[in-house]
């Protein structure tokens, strides 16, 4: 799989904000009280279940911002398949910093790895078909770029990032505009030449109108498998077809078999379970060593 890392200018303020939320006004009261300031430790990040790793750059930033002297050695980079009990990374440095950054780092890593793992399962479910798995804007506020990155790590693709990078005419737009033709024509007149227009249709009649007026993509919303197949045949390659609604690992192969180009689902980013990952003491770890 191929994906680019997130820019540090995007990662740093998000991680900094998460640390500020956790540290509050007084910092880590527990670690500061219990752990001597000159104590060092070696800990490992281990996956407690099988999945796909995503989010290690955020982990690195979490520990860097807390304690620059912490050294992080990555064993299984983003995009790696890991099994239960497998070591993802090793951390060495001041013990207070390791404990202070632990929860913020794992929150990001577990969340993004869970999304990547769920995405990879859906990609596998439609293997052999041309359909690509894509996410939506149903993301955690403030974390959209991270969650969409995790989808890419899992082998999926991204739908639009926001309201400003594409026109998607949905049912409420159509209802308020009056009809689907009016909505498309208004969008076509207003959109710049670089902006793509997609329209949501829930019937073959609406699809006919959309194709007549002309759009770049059609979102076939909550259609039966039979209607999806008919819709793909009607489109005949004239525009991109996207299926959405009631998509699960069980239904995805059947949906993909209709010949749609894209299958989108919001639950990849709003409901995917985390991947259980922990920061553990290795069997022969260097715990409690004092700094010279």
Automatic annotation (TrEMBL):
- Name the domain of life this protein comes from: Bacteria
Q: Which InterPro entries match?
A: Aldolase_TIM (IPR013785), NadC (IPR004393), NadC/ModD (IPR027277), Nicotinate_pribotase-like_C (IPR036068), Quinolinate_PRibosylTase_N_sf (IPR037128), Quinolinate_PRibosylTrfase_C (IPR002638), Quinolinate_PRibosylTrfase_N (IPR022412)
Assigned GO CC terms: cytoplasm
Ranked from the top, the taxonomy reads: Bacteria, Pseudomonadati, Pseudomonadota, Alphaproteobacteria, Hyphomicrobiales
Q: Is Secreted one of the keywords UniProt gives this record?
A: no
UniProt organism field: Mesorhizobium tamadayense
What UniProt keywords apply to this chain's record, in alphabetical order?
Glycosyltransferase, Pyridine nucleotide biosynthesis, Transferase
Give the metabolic or biological pathway.
Cofactor biosynthesis; NAD(+) biosynthesis; nicotinate D-ribonucleotide from quinolinate: step 1/1
Reaction(s) catalysed by this chain, per the record, are: nicotinate beta-D-ribonucleotide + CO2 + diphosphate = quinolinate + 5-phospho-alpha-D-ribose 1-diphosphate + 2 H(+)
Statement: the UniProt record of this protein carries the keyword Transport: no
Entry similarity comment: Belongs to the NadC/ModD family.
**Function, in words:** Involved in the catabolism of quinolinic acid (QA).
Q: Which GO terms describe its biological process?
A: NAD+ biosynthetic process; quinolinate catabolic process
Assembly mode = Hexamer formed by 3 homodimers.
One Pfam family, please name it.
Answer: QRPTase_C
PANTHER family, sorted: NICOTINATE-NUCLEOTIDE PYROPHOSPHORYLASE [CARBOXYLATING] (PTHR32179)
- Can you give the residue ranges of the Quinolinate phosphoribosyl transferase N-terminal domain? 28-113
A molecular function annotated in GO for this UniProt entry is:
nicotinate-nucleotide diphosphorylase (carboxylating) activity
Per the UniProt entry, the Enzyme Commission number(s) are 2.4.2.19
| Residue ranges annotated for the Quinolinate phosphoribosyl transferase C-terminal domain, each copy included | 115-280
Please give the name of this protein: Probable nicotinate-nucleotide pyrophosphorylase [carboxylating]
Q: Please tell me which top-level EC class this enzyme sits in.
A: transferase
